[in-house]
Amino acid sequence: QVEVVQSGGGLVQPGASLTLSCGTSSNRFAGYSLTWYRSTPEKQREYVASFGVNGVISYGDSTKGRFTISRDDAKNMGYLQMNDLKIEDTGVYYCHLGGPGPGFWGQGTQVTVSS
Asked: Mean pLDDT, to the nearest integer, of 94-115?
């Protein structure tokens, strides 16, 4: 079992920035794909961004151009830099490490964008 621990999030105003972090003590982090999802009042699970083990990066339509996913395999850490946050970005954000099998989920972190 791999424990995935998230940090970051909070309450911000529209237009602000936040960075979410996702870490694990596993030394096999580099072998996992990294994906961020979010749960909003409108969508139970919405794809946000992913960073594959092959280096391929992709974003959901609603986050493209504003969010940046990154990873530091040497530190076993993944990140989601969120800029120009909008009210509709409000939700619980989850980090997922994928590989063979169901993968491993972080505990979720709340992001609230409100004026």
From this structure: 94
